[in-house]
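Action item from last meeting closed. Structure (439 res):
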């Protein structure tokens, strides 16, 4: 990589150690409203974002417009005789702050159906990619190629009044949500199912149709898709995918550009890709210990992972300080439909064994499982075993929340986002001035 990389290493490694010490020593020093430590802490706990669609409490979990996940599983409209909410309903709730009626949900379903046709060039773009391209990379590229259809871009170019931005954002958001299941299913079938594609079934709801196009027509799988696409839709505004949508959108980028950027963030292993990583980690565990490892063996495997300087995927959270209610909703689903599934039982055993070990490290703030710890085991039960695809499914759902928020951003005319950054030299100088002034 050349001389520069060597020089960088010589400079950066000692400096990063120096900075760690500086933060340890001066982290508490106030820079006004925030401290030195806050500058290095990923903005956690700093209130600097507006997101109306949902609110996360570290100890209580997510609330969508005030409703918990168990409440929504009860209150949101379902298909006649159904047991899981239709995700179209949570979009309505997030957008309007009102629970929808069944007819409201049918109306959204119809609008999505009418806008669902994916332009041919999107498939051609995907077909041009090597089959080995990671599904999230394919997804991001496909979203970018859908951008040719942006009505926001066309309207902006023609010159529109600021107060109308939201209308075109709304239209793009709906078209994007309508097309994502087909795009995602196309990626799945081209990558794993011999390029044999399945046409949409217009008698099905948005989630069931996604299951159908993926090639999983079991009634239970349709139920799982409704639950899955509901609970992954939003997690207030500061998570990487939601924040990215908002940040990119603050430059007036159209919804497709915002969402592709968000998906590039979701594709990181500390965020959405964790659902893939969980399954990989469990499968490695099974390869090492067999399919029914003892609790001691699991505990040792967890310790070994930590000792190797790796993370335990599916555990921990930047905000939550308890078991993720989205994990519990999936566990509840599994208790109903697959209580004896071996992989599910392993997930539950790890849930029992991992938290005390993570707590004992003394540094992990939340030892409990998050949404990604459970989702893969449910999909594997129905035969959807291709874990590299899982984050795409998360992404399809996440569109509901981040697009509802983006529409609100545009209605409210929120300004371009531009937080202040500082340098280490600036911090050293400021800290030294503060220390001198108090001496
Ligand atoms: N395994 C091992 N170490 C972990 C850990 C885990 N599951 N969770 C946190 N830690 C470590 C951090 O890496 C950090 O270590 P250093 O001090 O050496 O840097 C330390 O514990 C403190 O971290 P934290 O304040 O508890 O957690 P953060 O807010 O920094 O990070 C998260 C949150 C989710 C990135 C982290 O818990 C993690 O990496 N979890 C595993 C990946 C995962 O499941 N991500 C999915 C989150 C949900 C989603 O967005 O989909």
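Sequence:
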């Amino acid at each position: 990589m050349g001389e520069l990389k060597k020089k960088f290493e010589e400079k950066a490694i000692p400096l990063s150690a120096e900075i760690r010490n500086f933060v340890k020593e001066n982290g508490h020093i106030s820079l006004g409203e925030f401290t030195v430590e806050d500058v290095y802490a990923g903005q956690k706990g700093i209130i600097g974002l507006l997101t109306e669609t949902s609110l996360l409490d570290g100890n209580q979990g997510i609330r969508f417009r005030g409703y918990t996940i168990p409440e929504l599983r009860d209150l949101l409209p379902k298909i006649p005789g159904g047991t899981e909410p239709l995700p179209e309903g949570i979009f309505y709730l997030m957008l309007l702050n009102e629970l929808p009626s069944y007819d409201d949900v049918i109306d959204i379903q119809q609008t999505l159906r009418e806008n669902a046709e994916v332009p041919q060039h999107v498939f051609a773009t995907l077909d041009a990619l090597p089959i080995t391209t990671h599904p999230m990379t394919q997804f991001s590229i496909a979203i970018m190629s859908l951008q040719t259809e942006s009505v926001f871009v066309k309207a902006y170019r023609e010159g529109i009044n600021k107060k109308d931005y939201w209308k075109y954002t709304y239209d793009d958001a709906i078209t994007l949500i309508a097309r994502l299941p087909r795009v995602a299913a196309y990626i799945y079938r081209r990558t794993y199912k011999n390029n044999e594609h399945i046409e949409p079934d217009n008698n099905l709801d948005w989630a069931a149709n996604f299951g159908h196009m993926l090639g999983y027509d079991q009634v239970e799988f349709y139920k799982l898709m409704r639950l899955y696409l509901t609970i992954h839709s939003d997690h207030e505004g500061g998570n990487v995918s939601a924040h990215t949508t908002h940040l990119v959108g603050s430059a007036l980028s159209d919804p497709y550009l915002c969402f592709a950027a968000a998906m590039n963030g979701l594709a990181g292993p500390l965020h959405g890709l964790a659902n893939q990583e969980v399954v990989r980690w469990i499968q490695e565990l099974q390869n090492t210990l067999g399919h029914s490892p003892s609790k001691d063996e699991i505990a040792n495997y967890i310790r070994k992972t930590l000792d190797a300087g790796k993370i335990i995927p599916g555990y921990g959270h930047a905000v939550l300080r308890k078991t993720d209610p989205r994990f519990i909703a999936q566990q509840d689903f599994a208790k109903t439909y697959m209580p004896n599934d071996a992989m599910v039982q392993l997930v539950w055993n790890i849930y029992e064994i991992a938290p005390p070990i993570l707590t004992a490290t003394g540094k992990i703030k939340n030892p409990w499982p998050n949404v990604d710890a459970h989702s893969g085991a449910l999909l594997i039960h129905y035969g959807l075993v291709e874990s590299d695809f899982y984050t795409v499914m998360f992404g399809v759902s996440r569109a509901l929340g981040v697009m509802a928020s983006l529409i609100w951003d545009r209605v409210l005319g929120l300004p371009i986002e531009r937080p202040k950054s500082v340098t280490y030299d600036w911090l050293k100088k400021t800290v030294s001035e503060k220390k001198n002034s108090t001496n």
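Note appended to the action item: The pocket of carboxymethyldethia coenzyme *A is lined by residues 239, 270-272, 274, 306, 311-318, 363-366, 370-372 (CB under 6 Å).
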